[in-house]
Inverse folding.
DNA sequence: GTGAAAGCGCTAACAG
DNA sequence: CTGTTAGCGCTTTCAC
């Protein structure tokens, strides 16, 4: 591999000049041209370790997730990528896969050995000592999906969107509105499941509808779990609508309804949260939370924090939006009344 | 941050001794103890860039995929992780997202600037000049999913498993066997779609069944696409069985059959390839291709190639296995005969 | 605008 | 087993 000295020799200048020319520092236009040409010709590319050692910057950021094999996280990732790429940053992935022990290893090694310039953590509740470690190392962090003291954040207003989802059902005339969710590792992070559950209760209360806890079923944030929960929900005295804590749960509910011979939305309305890539296919009404945009914002925030260490933490809230499809409709009065009597 | 000199000072030895003790080179047991203790106490962790600059090793490997947001690739990734983690390697992700231009950027920059010690590419047909670049850089490469001249490979025998899948249907007594697949970017990589299509034809030929091209429908490797294809397939003179090129396509077929009022497997058998995480939920018979195992093998192969540059290319074939669920059964003779007449 | 020189923090001979 | 001494390839003062 050609190194910087080769380029310098080729052009007939010092290596310092080559370095400056390549990094856009002071250099005459003519010198810069010749350096660039020589670099191109010799196939020179800066050595990342040498450059990192000299500057303290790696041009590499870390992305930490509880599971990479979930729609939300890969979608966040997709949002981050273009902006990292454009700025010349690589991405190293810290996938915990639910193994908490790995977190410790990652903090004690990868992060500390200065292999990244900053960290984006999604759905991970960093411990105070972890936050401290990062601050001591002067590594900016941005967190996606929940609030951590002393850490910049990108998130959505989960309480609000859960209320909105429930209110949508109420406004259609539903009163027997079930909720499925609040389970699993994803539901536990930052009390996401709890918050959406609270949103459901609050919306019902605000509308003067009694909260019937028989209309709540716990489910992990995936299709099979939503399916099981809905199966158990749709027996006698069934609800006319379900607010699912996620689209995957919602899809599970739709499939369960079909299997039981119910027609969506005629016999049952279902609304989810996410705008998962399969939601259009299943015609699921939902509240989109734009994980790609969340990733984009997180990356922008992180990079600006790297360029100029922020004095204070920033908070960016992504605005969700309603996507009305055909899984929600007015309740079928004949059924409702037959149940009521 | 404490550096190696701090540790040396603390213990009262030279920095060379500290380096050796920490890297498991010659050092008296006692010295090693004291060094370890001091490092622990001072919170010392080696600087990756300094270490890389001195050794030429980054302890970082690259993983290149066409799309990270697909089951196959995240599952391969999951298989790689434990073995990388255990060996102290980080993973930097090169997600092409279908943008071919990014490949060039990645090769010209990330790879060349020596930020990884090796590369695992999945479903990516590396060009000859890319292979050459990598060889010149002495960066081992292992490829998953297809053969590239001069590159170690982990794959499965796609022709064989497609035949097996089709033969399963034949052995149940089906003769009107459709195939859905051979489309999209995933199908194009290494002619994957073509190969599975050929397997279908070959199996039919071997069984003396005429290949009816009206029973083939093109579909991308996803659920909606499989659904559309099956919808168009299941009209008049429909097949009694479908060999889907992937489980996602197969799931789409099952959903289409349901929507059309057909019962699986009574009216229609469906078999896929993958053992996708939703296949159990949909009771889809399939041939598992164990992407996790493919990832594991690829990581093992790559790391051993890094430790001792291999003289020759290696090839590891993962053995798939049948997973019989309830989406396949003997054809319903009454229907078959009514069609025949 | 450019060159000389001093590191960045670590590893790897080479002696002893 | 341990210390001394060169670098690894680049960036960045500091003079000129």
């Amino acid at each position: 591999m050609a190194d910087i000295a080769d380029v310098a020799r080729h052009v007939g200048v010092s290596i310092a000049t080559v370095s400056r020319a390549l990094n856009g520092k002071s250099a005459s236009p003519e010198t810069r041209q010749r350096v660039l040409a020589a670099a191109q010709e010799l196939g020179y590319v800066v050595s990342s370790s040498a450059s990192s050692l000299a500057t303290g910057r790696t041009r590499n950021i870390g992305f930490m997730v509880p599971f990479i094999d979930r729609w939300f996280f890969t979608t966040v990732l997709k949002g981050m990528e273009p902006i990292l790429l454009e700025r010349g940053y690589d991405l190293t992935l810290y996938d915990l896969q639910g193994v908490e022990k790995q977190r410790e290893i990652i903090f004690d090694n990868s992060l500390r050995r200065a292999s990244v310039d900053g960290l984006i953590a999604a759905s991970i509740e960093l411990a105070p000592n972890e936050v401290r470690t990062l601050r001591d190392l002067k590594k900016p962090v941005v967190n996606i999906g929940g609030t951590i003291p002393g850490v910049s954040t990108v998130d959505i207003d989960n309480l609000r969107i859960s209320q909105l989802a429930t209110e949508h059902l109420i406004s259609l005339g539903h009163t027997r509105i079930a909720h499925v969710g609040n389970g699993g590792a994803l539901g536990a992070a930052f009390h996401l499941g709890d918050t959406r559950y609270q949103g459901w209760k609050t919306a019902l209360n605000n509308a003067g509808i009694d909260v019937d806890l028989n209309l709540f079923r716990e489910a992990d944030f995936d299709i099979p779990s939503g399916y099981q929960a809905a199966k158990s929900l749709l027996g006698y005295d069934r609800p006319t609508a379900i607010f699912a804590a996620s689209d995957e749960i919602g899809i599970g509910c739709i499939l369960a309804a079909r299997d039981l011979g119910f027609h969506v939305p005629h016999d049952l309305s279902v609304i989810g949260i996410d705008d998962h890539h399969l939601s259009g296919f299943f015609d699921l009404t939902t509240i989109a939370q734009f994980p790609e945009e969340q990733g984009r914002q997180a990356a922008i925030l992180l990079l600006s924090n790297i360029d100029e260490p922020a004095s204070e933490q920033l908070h960016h809230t992504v605005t969700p939006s309603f996507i009305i499809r055909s899984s929600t409709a007015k309740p079928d009065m004949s059924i409702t009344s037959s149940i009521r009597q």
Summary: Chain B touches chain A through 47 residues (CB under 8 Å). The first helix of chain B runs from residue 4 to 11.
